[in-house]
Design a protein that fits this description.
Blueprint lengths: L7 E2 L4 E2 L33 E5 L5 E4 L7 E4 L11 H7 L8 H8 L4 H10 L12 H10 L5 E4 L9 E2 L8 E5 H4 L3 H7 L1 E7 L3 E4 L2 E3 L12 H14 L5 E6 L2 E2 L1 E2 L6
Parallel strand pairs: 3-5, 6-12, 7-14
Antiparallel strand pairs: 1-2, 3-4, 8-9, 9-10, 10-13, 11-12
Length: 260
């Protein structure tokens, strides 16, 4: 991330004001340039680096920061959905960080126009801001042609979910957002999501599928869910199911102040 030159004091060798996108990366000094790695990075726009494409210009997904920012180009075999931004930048490059020869090869691969069209259309997607409303989810179900969406776990309400301590690190659990969330919207969009515990009371989520499939009707435990699913299908109309890839992490509140 960078500040324009007008904000730099050469006498002090320091930036005089913070990066305007500093709140998006709280772990990086707001006065730093290129995350203090100018040998390997440049940042002419001050943007984040998140949407990831392969060497043929095909969209692969995102790192752990979402869709907004400069495109990262990497081998498809090196990509993992939700990978850390540092890992993504270590394995890939933005166009600004490519050599002239690499940039020329990428621009002449025959798919460059498709890459540009896709990249320039990202801001019109419902998941551009990392949050999905019920109306957006239903509209994509009808018109998204089964393409995946990408949302930020940090923007999903988990206010009724608490951390029981570090002994549960590594545990996976599927939770209902109708119980774990105060947001009716989040509960209706996701229903239930599967989380994995990480150190320091953090959780990350597995991808979720947006569909209206009912479960075994002979099991009374499934009746409430099937009723909700049937109502949801009525309002959504006809469409195609799709994956919601949930990137980033969320820090849970400890169950008790002394919970370690």
């Amino acid at each position: 991330m960078m500040q324009t030159a007008i904000c730099y004091d050469s006498d002090l060798s320091s930036w005089l004001s913070v990066d305007p996108m500093a709140d998006s990366r709280s772990w990086v000094s707001p006065y730093s340039y290129c995350q203090n790695n100018p040998m390997n990075r440049i940042d002419p726009s001050g943007a984040l680096d998140n949407p990831i494409y392969d060497l043929d210009g095909k969209f692969l997904g995102t790192d752990d920061l979402g869709l907004q920012g400069d495109a990262i180009i990497m081998k498809a075999s090196d990509f993992k959905q939700g990978m850390s931004n540092d890992d993504a930048m270590a394995k890939g490059r933005t166009l600004d960080n490519m050599s002239d020869a690499q940039a020329m090869k990428f621009a002449n691969n025959g798919n460059f126009e498709n890459f540009l069209n896709h990249y320039n259309s990202l801001s019109s997607r419902p998941d551009w801001d990392g949050y999905l409303t019920l109306s957006e989810a239903n509209d994509w179900y009808r018109n998204g042609n089964g393409q995946a969406l990408f949302t930020d776990l940090g923007k999903i309400d988990l206010s009724h979910l608490y951390s029981k301590g570090e002994k549960y690190v590594g545990e996976k659990k599927t939770i209902s957002l109708f119980r774990a969330s105060s947001s009716t919207n989040d509960a209706l969009v996701y229903g239930q999501i599967t989380l994995k515990r990480y150190p320091n009371h953090q959780v990350r989520a597995y991808s979720d599928e947006y569909n209206f499939e009912t479960h075994n009707a002979w099991n009374p435990l499934n009746w409430p869910r099937n009723i909700q699913t049937s109502i949801g299908r009525y309002y959504a109309g006809e469409g195609q199911k799709y994956d919601i890839n949930i990137y980033g992490s969320k820090t849970l509140k400890p169950l008790y102040p002394w919970t370690k």
